[in-house]
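Friendly challenge for the regulars: who can give me the structure tokens for this chain first? No prize, just bragging rights.
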Amino acid sequence: MIRRFITGFIFSTAPLEEKAYGWVCLLVTTLVLLALLVNTVLGLDPALRILSYLGLAGYLPLYLMWRFLPHHPRYPFLLLLFSTLLLMIGWFPNGGIVGSIPFFYLTVLFLAGLLLKPRMLALFCGVCLLQILALTGIELQYPSLLTPYSSKFQQALDLFISFSFVGITSMFWMHKVHHAYQQERENALLANQVKSQFLSRMSHELRTPLNIIIGLTQQMRKKNLSPDRQALYLSRVEDNGLQLLELVNQLLDVSRIEAGRLDLDYRLCHLNTLLHTLVEQLEVTALNKGLQLRLCLPEQECSLQTDIARLRQILLNLLGNALKFTSSGTVTLRLEASPEAFLIHVEDTGPGISATQQQHLFEPFSRLAEAAGIEGSGLGLSIAHSLALHMNYQLRLEPSTVGTHFVLILPLTLASPA
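First reply, four minutes later:
Bragging rights claimed.
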């Protein structure tokens, strides 16, 4: 429980503003516990101990709201408002303007700097200033409301402990916030670097087929071209145009997946039929390369509710890569029905994937094709992996002594045998 409490905000992946709220909850809870300890040790007014109990009773629900409920922009305001109310109540039992409450007002202002935007921060500082002026005025007008310290030593010790703790904790959290902002800055710089690499890669991927199309159309303007040559050039223009269209579609898929806007159309799909259709579609490609394309299916028919088009896209990417990189031998598409899931295996007898390449296998523009001297955008495996995650499937690379072995896992929570 304690470990979960700590990791819930210290190591949270939530945005910085939300993590800061969790940090503040810890800080103010620590301050309240310290105040309870100091008041007990120094024998101060029992009302201050009651005030500490009220603080714990208020801050704990505020933390639980942040920890278990969706983040709401009013949580920081409620936290700071509750803190100032406690300080106002504790002003008179804790020595007034010469007590430790003014130091805790400084801490609340520091916390407000973590949680509030500039305009709201200025407003909150004004509210705190008015509270202090009003409390000081009441203190001067009605000094009998104050609970004085029993001795100068008690007062000095209370002020020293409060000042020291406020200073130390403030510096600690300032360092932590600075570190968090530095981390976000580094992440932003990394994102800009990735974007620059993306634009550079895309300019190359688009420029290559466009240059080919432009060159072929310029050649076709010559009057002495034979009909066969013109037909060949037109065929190559069409091929490069289709390559451009495929690249644009892949980019659109990447952007939709990253934005979480990829809509899925779930329908009943007979896996045996789908895999048989894919093999028939790619059989000519395999024969042209002298490869054997094998299909292994279980005896029973396997069905599931899925987006058929997206599942087909994943498998076409896997099979397309297997046929592309395999120069001789076999490409196998195998369906396995286990008690927990359906498993679709794509295996080949190609050169395999090195350990270095495996580290960046599913990253966009991971160019396995460059190492083999084969053209490719480097988006196929990344899209297949992202689609699988989006559909709550698993796509992973299995260890293999020969070639490459991918497996797509369809859990039985999403699928059921017919």
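The first strand starts at residue 266 and ends at 270. Confidence is low (pLDDT under 50) at residues 1-16. Your move, everyone else.
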